[in-house]
What does this fold into?
Amino acid sequence: MKRHFATLSLAAGLALAAGQALAAKDSLVLGMVLEPPHLDPTAGAAAAIDEVVYANVFEGLTRIDRNGAVKPALAESWTVSDDGLTYIFKLRSGVNFHDGSAFDSADVKYSLDRATAEDSTNAQKGLFEPIAKVETPDPHTVRITLARPTGNFLFNLGWGDAVIVAPENAADNKSKPVGTGPFVFKRWVKGDRVELERNGAYWGSPAKLANATIKIIPDPAAAAAAVMAGDVDAFANFPAPETMAQFEADPRFEVVIGSTEGETILAMNNTRKPLDDIRVRRAIAHAVDRKAVIDGAMFGYGTPIGSHFAPHHPAYVDLTGRYPYDPARAKALLAEAGHGAGLKLTLKLPPPSYARRGGEIIAAQLAQVGIEAEIIPVEWAQWLEQVFRGTDYDLTIVSHTEPMDIGIYARDTYYFNYKSAAFRDVIAKLNAAVEDKARYALMADAQKTIAEDSVNVFLFQLAKHGVWDAKVEGLWENSPVQANDLTEVYWK
Amino acid sequence: MAVYLSRRLAALAITLLVASLVVFLVLEVLPGDPAAVMLGVNAREDTLAALRSEMGLDRPAAERYLRWLGGLLTGELGTSYTYGVAVGELIAERVALSLPLALIAIVLSTAIAIPLGVTAAAHRNRAADIGIIGFTQIGIAVPNFWFAILLILLFAVELKWLPAGGFAGWDAGLWPALKTLLLPAVALALPQAAILARVTRSSVLETLGEDYVRTARAKGLDRRAALWRHAVRNALIPVVTIMGLQFSFLLAGTIIIENVFYLPGLGRLIFQAIAQRDLIVVKDVVVLLAGTVVVVNFAVDMAYAALDPRLRGGAHDL
It folds into this structure.
């Protein structure tokens, strides 16, 4: 018996040793659907760019963490003047770019000036628009003066578009990104993968992974096969929700359904007849059954929304009950607006499956109340030109993935063509407010105003489908910003 | 022969010129602004204008066409709008995958198809023939992407012998690279083999009925020798024609297979470039492919001459 016990403990010891050997695994293969067009987050809108380099290769003055909170990054701390116009950032010392050159206030000034310059190709130039001037009293201090108070300014500096680059590398960042982050860019086999490796000289706590490979797999069936075969360790945004049940049933994998910043809406052209009539817009809102759309198009994944606001935000107001699914009410509203005999509208659908699949379901629901929606599938480039820029459409479905973007309803020209002085007033006040309490109250007003005006039909918050090896820890559950932050990822 | 060659070269030049003009005009009328695609929904008007001028898109169409054409002639293919690297480099990387893949697939499909087709013809209407016809029927009917998924499920997910997709790259070594190309090559080759086998069968059957085969048999050649030496060789002309077409298809038309196996090949490059309005890449790849088709056709014609001495002599030699 004693001997038996000894054998057992030896076996246990061996198993433990084997376990430790496995735990030493320090490389990760992460799957992504879309390939980034290039790797410079300050010169392109593609989410895929940030999904490779944000927080991994590049850092800004502030950063957004997994919960959407603003955290210090290259700025160690900051103070904001009482009028909300002057921000003084104390920069971290001992920070180097990956090429060995030192990071200081001149790099910050260069990066921000570059983003606001006349020939800037920054896709989010609007974020920097409030900046009046950037000064560098000393190498570790930056003073930013704003033209008007901007409540979201620290959050905005945490966007991928606001990362700090060095003047000597800025031009080459598209193909050879050089940042200050915990991972160094190694190589990019175009069409196939991007390889990153740990930055040994990182200023903060070093990454736990020694190597990370981001593998591009555009086809959903191929993505499922790659995860099943173990070629890919993790998919933070898995493209095939229809296969989630299969992964959930398999103990080798962890399935994590999180939330994104993607408000998915049935957008309406508010100035085009007959959608300029609020009764017609409300009729359409009553005609759409969100639950059926989520079940049918998204396999049940997605949180219903009643306004253009993320449900996980503390200022969220649940307005999903404002226009309950009620075809009879929709018909009555249409009749009241003089369209009792029916209506014909176009429905332009971009490529993502939420739009194409969701569009078919919505068209069927609209048909129930006498609206004939002609489905026109379009590519992204066409959508941008015809729908977004040309506003040549009646209805379209799209997910607005930028964080905290309710302000788009206050823009002079935006493709919904919504023009409300009351709403603009709320947003102006919001931009000027600094206190959280006041800001949240204004955010609630903003949500209610656009719901009341039934600007668009607010469908659901796009879910984030994460599938990864059950032994991988530290990936983000939600995506408050578009990122695959690998800094805290490790193997159990 | 010299006249013949120069005529072919002139045809090549004209084809490329027409192809370049057509693709340029088609992309001119195609809706979608490359700058808007890159900068997305929050881009401001001045940012878009800055990017357009950086990419040279603010120049008149005629100037852009001539500049591009001049670049092609001097081997300067331009810079990709989205990737920001030289298009030549981008194409070279993709050709390093697509060309070997197409070659492996064509060799595989020929190695399968010709013996099958000849066997079927030699055993016309007997069990072997009926079996082969049945097999080729299935091969033609089964879509290659579905067949590819079955291959992945069996060899990658279940048996784990081969990777589910991706390309290791030639710098990873010959075998690791070939390993990643094996399943895609099989998925591409089998449907092509099915078509080729049927063409071979009917072509051999036709030549088997020819007088010269009967003469050969009458001279005392046995069935086997008459079949391989006289019937098959003469039957190869239509087979080579189909192979030429298949090769062009394999080089460019593999978008679906490249997606299923997520291979960074030419097909994916052009597909992605169209979606992202990377127009310079689209234009260059289309011209390259048009050129390849012409060159392959030329090679096919040369193969005819090797197969059939009658096509060698005559007027062309004058």
Notes: Residues 2-23 of chain A form the longest helix (22 residues).
